[in-house]
Amino acid sequence: MHFEEIEAAAASSETGAPGWRFAVAAGILGWILDAFDFFVVVFLISELMGKFHVGKAAIVWSMTLTLAMRPIGALFFGALADKFGRKKPLIACVLYFSAVTVLSGLAPTYWIFMAMRLLYGLGMGGYWGIGASYAMESAPRHRRGVLSGLMQGGYPFGYLMAAIGMQTIAPRFGWQAMFFVGVGVTLVIVVLAAVAPESAAWRLHRTPSLGKIFGTLFQHLGVFGYLLLLMAAITCLSHGTQDLYPDFLKTLPWMNGVTVLGMNATFGVPVIYNIGAIIGAIVVGAMSERIGRRYAVMAALGVCLLAMPMWAFGGSVLAIVVGSYLMQSGVQGAFGVIPAHLNELAPDAIRGLFPGFVYQLGVLFASPVLPLQNLLRSRFGYPWALCSFETLVIVSLLLIFWFGPEKRGRSFVTGHRAEATEEVSSRDNVALR
Questions:
Q1: Domains: count for the chain
Q2: How many Å is the Cα radius of gyration of the chain?
Q3: Which residues of 12-46 are buried (b: 16+ CB within 10 A; e: fewer)?
Q4: Is 332 in contact with 278 (CB distance < 8 Å)?
Q5: What Å distances lie between residue 18 and 59, 192, 288, 352, CA to CA?
Q6: How many CB atoms lie within 10 A of CB 109?
Q7: Concatenated DSSP letters of 242-283
Q8: Which CATH number does the domain housing residue 268 bear?
Q9: Which residues pair with 355 in a beta bridge?
Q10: Does residue 433 lie within any of the structural domains?
Q11: Dihedral sign, CA of 211, 216, 222, 225?
Q12: Residue 303: which of 261, 241, 374 has the closest Cα?
């Protein structure tokens, strides 16, 4: 790549490449769709049990398979994104997981359904890494924080869309329709990615072979190990405060018969705290541009600690609503910084693979959190199990971020820009290697 092209890439890092909004929109919409397609199965457990004549554990296993395949998908699609660019692998990934989702709704037997959910995990794992790197590389540096929050806020937004679909689409068109409605969004994502420019940072740092891609990964095992610990801990916080909480609400006798937002409280309260999650992700993401990624996350974790008494021990509907809203605002606020933080710490040559792989591997390593919380519940009761475990996780995260590195606002092209300047000064204006 010649000096003039590198200067243009450096300029786009400051102001965003022309059409950068299309790349960012494709990344955000894809993560929303990914979450929607995943939570459809969560909401349809009873219907799937009836269709396939299996128990709840059998359907839960399909979600476990999806989880287990996510790191493999991140590795596969991420390597493609570093070798061939962000656009084509992103389009291929969204078409792939959308097709598998449709086939999941058409599966005639339990084992075919299981196979589809296993294959779906590859796509779900692959999309986040490509979408996040494409969005962060395309957007102006000073907007990474808020766009990071918008992207990560797409996950609870996908949950809300699935919940709304269960109340509107499923009763009218049948529950299988929930596997089909995302196709329209898929087409929008494909169009957005097709018209968006390719990542200038990828063109600068492209790696010619898969061997060099994986070789670069092994050269950065130190930062990979640190970020793996970070992602495992923050996933324990996210899933540990979300997944069992609706079941916890059902154990509170004074919640029986109570309505929230016109719905049963065990359904209405999650809607409210997911709204808090979306707002928290955006607000803390934007805040990270001013005070730094680490301090923004630590402030969000402080909100979690303040919310803990009401969240776990609240003695009224109002206390539970306020506590859970604040808790998820803090949890997803902390998570909202992650897309920008991981991409800024990732090696330039493998930014398509590195953030997504460490993200999804961290999710997998955190998967024992629910059985562990269940064990604590059987010994100490629900409130103390949730409170003690998550307090330990939050304190651990505070230490991880306090002692960890940060590269807020780093340029993704600076190294090549400096190298090009040296070559031009010696009148050797040739393509950089």
A1: 1
A2: 22
A3: bbeebbeebbbbbbbbbbbbbbbbbbbbbbebbee
A4: yes
A5: 45, 13, 25, 21
A6: 10
A7: HTTHHHHHHT-GGGTT-EETTEEHHHHHHHHHHHHHHHHHHH
A8: 1.20.1250.20
A9: none
A10: no
A11: negative
A12: 241
* Residue 430 in domain: no
For 266-320, what is each residue's pLDDT tens digit? 778 888 999 999 999 999 999 999 999 999 999 999 999 999 999 999 989 999 9
Tell me, what DSSP letter sits at residue 141?
A: G
Q: Is the pLDDT of residue 130 over 60?
A: yes
Q: How far apart are CA 4 and CA 10, in angstroms?
A: 10
Cβ-based neighbours of 378, under 8 Å, separated by 6 or more? none
Q: What tens digit of pLDDT does each residue of 96-110 get?
A: 999 999 999 999 999
Query: pLDDT, tens digit, for every residue of 195-246?
Result: 998 888 888 887 767 778 888 888 889 999 999 999 999 999 998 898 788 8
Domain that holds residue 168: 3-425
Q: Is the dihedral of CA 226, 66, 167, 150 positive or negative?
A: positive
Would 132 be classed as within a structural domain? yes
414 belongs to a structural domain: yes
Q: Is the pLDDT at 432 greater than 90, yes or no?
A: no
Q: Return d(Cα 378, Cα 381) in angstroms, integer.
A: 6
Is 122 within 8 Å of 135 (Cβ atoms)?
Answer: no
Q: Give the separation between CA 114 and CA 15, rounded to whole angstroms.
A: 45
pLDDT at 421 over 50: no
Token pair in block for residue 337 = 């910084």
Task: Provide CB contacts within 8 A for 121, sequence distance 6+.
Answer: 65, 66, 67, 68, 69, 70, 72, 73
Residue identified by tokens 């693979």 is 353
CB contact set of 362 (below 8 Å; sequence gap of 6+): 227, 228, 229, 230, 231, 232, 234, 235
With beta carbons less than 8 A apart as the criterion, state whether 286 and 340 touch.
Answer: no
Cα 381 to Cα 386: distance, rounded to the nearest angstrom: 9
pTM of the model: 0.86
